[in-house]
Specification:
CATH topology of the largest domain: Aspartate Aminotransferase, domain 2
Order of helices and strands: HEHHEHEHHEHEHEHHEEHHHEEHEEEH
Number of helices: 15
Protein name: Threonine aldolase family protein
Number of strands: 13
Cofactor: pyridoxal 5'-phosphate
Radius of gyration: 21 Å
Bound molecules: pyridoxal-5'-phosphate
Helix content: 40-55%
CATH architecture of the largest domain: 3-Layer(aba) Sandwich
Pfam families: Beta_elim_lyase
Family: Belongs to the threonine aldolase family.
Distance between the termini: 25 Å
Shape: globular
Keywords: Pyridoxal phosphate
Strand content: 15-25%
Strand order of the largest sheet: 2-8-7-6-5-3-4
Structural class: alpha/beta
């Protein structure tokens, strides 16, 4: 997409009065105004990751996840590098059990190998997190098993609580540590039927993100024992992650914990209603059905170009946003987008979703 296309899309989205997928976009001025009115900016800022909203955020995350400590990172990519390195040093085994669709394997330019000298052992070829049997049956030892909750590129799929407990036990029985990629852990608790702290208690370390469902500017935290936190601060520095001040991102993360975290369970519930309404669209496929979190894959029998064009036309003409970001799949003529149910979609009941889908389809070639 060119810069002009992106601007046209952003402008169309900003003007929409009805939004099915995603949060309502905010201008930078709105974000700044929200921060200016917040108690989090009354005091002094942080310095090199210490003090101010950054420390408050770390304490808040440790409290929510029930861990001794949490360390703020500018990115999850960096946080997970450090967690996996810690596991390798503790166990003396640089092999990490990773899903072939996990973020480090697909989206990080092999940083785990290039920067941290780690080696991936693929845990399964199935489009879901590995089972206990698969971990017990690995051909080679692993120092750390990393589980992505939910596994985003497989359709934001989660294991059941029992499956999760069993796979963690299998890793431990094999002498491995367990690290959770919890970029979207916040919205995983309804499906797992356990609290954030109960989930994090299964693992040796957990990474969470502040800019996905929480709507912050950027940033992540690595939560775990105090010893891991001390190590994480040292390696964050080595990775170039000790920014002089990070309070703007930390403030938006704290605001996300205040405003969005309490609403996520309602989004997850409503995602089932939205998914069921979209499943009735001719040729549509939903995955997973019902959704495990607030987001799910919607597949339609059209090339991505046609679907993206239809969405833009609908947005520009009627100020209605269906869903953007369509990508072609392996099956020619089928494309997929992730539908994310957030605040704006709560206003749409099943009939409104069906109506919106119908309006979207009028912009598609028949
Ligand atoms: C599952 C998962 N893990 C890790 C990351 C990395 O986060 P960051 O963009 O903060 O490096 C992402 C980001 O999209 C993600 O979706």
């Amino acid at each position: 997409m060119t810069g002009t296309d992106r601007e046209r899309l952003a402008a169309a989205r900003r003007d929409c009065t009805v939004i099915l997928s995603g949060p309502r976009p905010r201008s930078m001025a709105e974000v700044l105004a929200g921060m200016a009115g917040s108690r989090y900016v009354d005091g002094p800022p942080d310095t090199y990751g210490d003090g101010g909203p950054v420390t408050e955020l770390e304490e808040r995350v440790a409290g929510l996840l029930g861990t001794e400590a949490a360390v703020y990172f500018p990115t999850g990519t960096m946080a997970q590098q450090v967690a996996l390195r810690f596991g390798a040093e503790r166990t003396g085994t640089p092999a990490v059990g990773l899903h072939p669709l996990s973020h480090p394997m697909v989206h990080e330019r092999d940083a785990y190998a290039a920067l941290s000298g780690l080696r991936a052992v693929r845990t399964t070829t199935a489009p879901r997190n590995p089972t206990a049997e698969e971990i017990a049956g690995l051909d080679e030892p692993i120092g750390t098993l990393m589980l992505e909750l939910p596994l985003r590129d497989a359709g934001l799929v989660l294991p059941s609580w029992d499956e999760l407990v069993a796979v963690v036990a299998a890793a431990r029985a094999a002498g491995a540590r367990v690290h959770l990629d919890g970029a979207r852990l916040w919205e995983s608790t309804p499906h797992l039927g356990r609290s954030l702290a109960e989930v994090a208690a299964l693992a040796d370390s957990t990474y969470v993100s502040f800019y996905k469902s929480l709507g912050g500017m950027s940033g992540a935290a690595l939560a775990g024992p105090a010893e891991l936190a001390r190590y994480a601060r040292a390696w964050r520095h080595r990775h170039g992650g000790n920014l002089y001040q990070q309070w703007p991102a930390a403030v938006t993360a704290l605001q996300g914990l205040d405003a969005e975290l309490p609403r996520l369970a309602a989004y997850v519930r409503h995602a089932r209603t939205v998914a069921a309404a979209l499943a009735a669209v001719p040729g549509a496929r939903i995955h997973p059905e019902p959704p495990h979190t607030q987001a799910f894959q919607l597949w339609l029998p059209h090339p991505a170009d046609e679907l993206n064009r239809a969405n833009l036309e609908l947005a520009e003409r009627d100020r209605v946003w269906f869903a953007g970001g369509w990508r072609d799949g392996a099956v020619p003529g089928m494309a997929m987008t992730e539908v994310t149910v957030a605040g704006p979609a709560l206003d749409l009941d099943a009939a409104a979703v069906a109506d919106l889908a119908g309006r979207f389809r009028t912009h598609l070639p028949s």
